[in-house]
Amino acid sequence: MGAGAEPDGSSRSDEEWERFLRESVAGTADAPKEPSARAREVARRLRAEPGRSPEGWRSPPPARPKRRVGWYVVGLLAVLALLFVALAPGRVVDLVTGSDASRSDAQRPTVQDPFRGSPAATWASGAAGITMPKEAARAVGWMSAAEVERALTRSRDFLVASSLDRGVLRGERPEKAIALINPHQKDVQHLLKTAFRNPGEKNDPLLLFSRFQPSRAHLVGDVVKTRGALTYREGERGALQVTADVTFVYPVARTGGDDEILRTIVRRELVLSWDDPDKVSTEPGTFSITSYKYAMTNGGCGTPTGYLVPPFGPDRQSDESGREVDPYDQDSPFGRDESSQDECGRATRS
User: Fold this and answer.
1) 327: closest CA among 350, 310, 302?
2) Cα 15–16–20 angle (5° rounding)?
3) Who's near 107: CB < 8 A, 6+ residues apart?
4) What is the pLDDT of residues 20-51, one digit of tens each?
5) In angstroms, rounded to a whole number, what is the distance separating the alpha carbons of residues 209 and 161?
6) Quick one: residue 104, left, alpha or beta (phi over 0 = left, psi -120 to 50 = alpha)?
7) What is the maximum span of the chain, computed from C-alpha positions, in angstroms?
8) 155 burial level (CB within 10 Å; 0-12, 13-18, 19+)
9) pLDDT tens, residue by residue, 224-243
10) Which of 13, 42, 143, 329 is the most exposed place for a label (fewest CB within 10 A)?
């Protein structure tokens, strides 16, 4: 075998070998690399095997087949997409059409429909939303069944006179409501004497009455939505104890302002004691207030003014700095009383 002989008997020309040696010595970057004798022998054997196509001695390894995503993954994604469409079809339409803003506008209250978009839209109006006990009144303590029924009616009259009377809502003094309170109850009488002249945390008219300052806000329309009930039982010294838990929803607008409408929501819990005049100093047709507390949203924060102060426009963000609350959740504990310092809550819905 000559200097240029291959294992299979083929040979290279003298000119090719001369060029190969010259370029190898010169270090040319693309000079061909001479395969080793072992590599040439392996190549010869592979060519000799029938049905085999030998790979080049420096050929790259065969590429691995690419994995494909299983059909089960595709199916899972399809199921999830169908589930989203089924559970939130409106949201899909919003994403396609960009109608989130129009949906929000459709829920915004107006002068013609101040309860639009509110859970209170389906509530009863005024005194009709304050439910009396379903069963016929029964005698309790020193009172007969007829007297209990009359006391329940007057208890509801107090809620109407204190939180629904149009004059009181415009900031007037609640004379009708005050006339139903026992004039001999010293602590409450002190509250009534000081609250309207010098309102403060412990002597705030809002503890018992709902009032708006006419120069700042006014009711929209003639309707206040209400939901709540009166219950009763026998109290101390044979007294009739009436408990009222009622939520009031007031649609209001800024006096002399734009068309922005807010809903101020006030929930009140009152415990009234119709005392036996033989055991407690009282006057006929009046009750003593055992306890009172309230919770409000969209009614103002900060130093008490004696009025509900709806936060219109830019005041809303700074006013609602407290924790989020649902003013329509009547199962959760709540309340401000004469000793509370609760921060205002931010309504999750109104």
Assistant:
1) 350
2) 120
3) 116, 117
4) 656 655 555 555 555 556 556 655 665 666 55
5) 9
6) alpha
7) 141
8) buried
9) 999 999 999 999 999 999 99
10) 13
